Amino acid sequence: MLILCVAAVGAGGGVIAAHSKGEEAPVSASEDTAVDAVDPVDESLQVCADSWNDGNMNKQSVASISMAAQTENPTAYVHVGFSSVFPDRCMITVANPSTLFAQQYLQEGGASWSIAPAWTGSVNDLDESNLQWNARMTQDGTITVN
User: Fold this and answer.
1) What is the value of pTM for the model shown?
2) Share in percent of the chain as helix, strand, coil (round to 5)
């Protein structure tokens, strides 16, 4: 069953992307006839980011803490992933490059997020897998997966 089909045509040619509920990975094709599979992991990370963005009343507070003490270009480094302890739960790691302070938030049941972080501490204490910054956070706390 076809869920979404997008077509965009620019000066360099056209791009077509389709998503289906089938077992195959969604594909995109461009005029140069190259076909790339969209990584299903990327889709699951986007689902986590969407859950954070839509179900988190505390996201602006998280952004404030994560961007504090930065005078130019306030930036929060973000890793969107899954908990190694609870692999069916999204985990958001947010870090401040000025203070080297980091916080991790674990998705609760459904699409809700705890107000209190599951962990806080130094960026240096994070597991290496959480240092792969794959997203960014705006000043209102909205996360966008790269």
Assistant:
1) 0.70
2) 20, 40, 40
